[in-house]
Design goal:
With 234 residues, the chain is mostly helical. It has helices at residues 3-19, 24-59, 64-122, 127-152, 163-184, 199-233. Helix content is 83%, strand content 0%. Belongs to the SNF7 family.
Length: 234
């Protein structure tokens, strides 16, 4: 068993037993501190590698022994740097997994609170009463719709009168008005002057005059008819 395993098995377990285990926040803080420490170690090793490489160039073939020692140290630093890179990847993965676990735990906890709240709200609800209430609401909506339909329908005032009788009476009134208009119409008197020598001109003037009288009488009849219809409609 390695020393690292003994350390975590011994001291770590004792500390967790005494405190009941670290909280997620404490573990995340420790992991971030470790990441920061390893990042600084990386910067240090990179600096040492550049320094040993410069030394090896400086010695070169003039001092092969010193140059080889510098290159060996550079190799050791590069190996340590590679190990730190792997360790940082592992710590980063563990930190992300712990953060996700902590987030899931908080989500489940809040969902549990919400479920308890919903259960508390539904304790005072009776499904049978809810069904009865919804049925009453539906019935009242139907009644309201029937009332609205009844109010919106046109009332049948005046439907007791026979429409055919009313039309017959209207035609009689129109005929009386037409007869009265014809009696009141006066034809122009025959001129006392002697007839012109040419009968064609006289006939033309008589025909024009007759057409004017007929048109005037027709227009008067139409106006009377429109007035009667308007009075009856009102």
């Amino acid at each position: 068993m390695s020393k690292i395993s003994k350390f975590f098995k011994g001291g770590g377990s004792a500390a967790s037993k005494s405190r009941g285990g670290p909280s997620p926040q404490e573990a995340l803080a420790r992991l971030r501190e470790t990441e920061e420490m390893l990042s600084k170690k990386q910067e240090y090793l990179e600096t040492r590698i550049e320094r040993e490489l410069a030394a090896a160039r400086q010695y070169g073939t003039k001092n092969k022994r010193a140059a080889l020692q510098a290159l060996k140290r550079k190799k050791r630093y590069e190996k340590q740097l590679s190990q730190i890179d792997g360790t940082l990847s592992t710590i980063e993965f563990q930190r992300e997994a712990l953060e996700n676990s902590h987030t899931n735990t908080e989500v489940l906890k809040n969902m549990g609170y919400a479920a308890q709240a919903m259960k508390k709200v539904h304790q005072n609800m009776d499904l049978n009463k809810i069904d009865d209430l919804m049925q009453d609401i539906t019935e009242q909506q139907d009644v309201a719709q029937e009332i609205s339909d009844a109010i919106s329908n046109r009332a049948g005032f005046g439907d007791e009168f026979d429409e055919d009788e009313l039309m017959a009476e209207l035609e009689e009134l129109e005929q009386e008005e037409l007869n009265k208009g014809m009696r009141d119409m006066r034809l122009p008197s025959v001129p006392s002057a002697s007839l012109p020598s040419r009968p064609g001109k006289l006939l033309t003037r008589y025909s024009t005059l007759r057409q004017g009288v007929t048109s005037t009488r027709k227009r008067a009849e139409d106006e009377d008819e429109m007035k009667k219809l308007a009075a009856w409609a009102s």
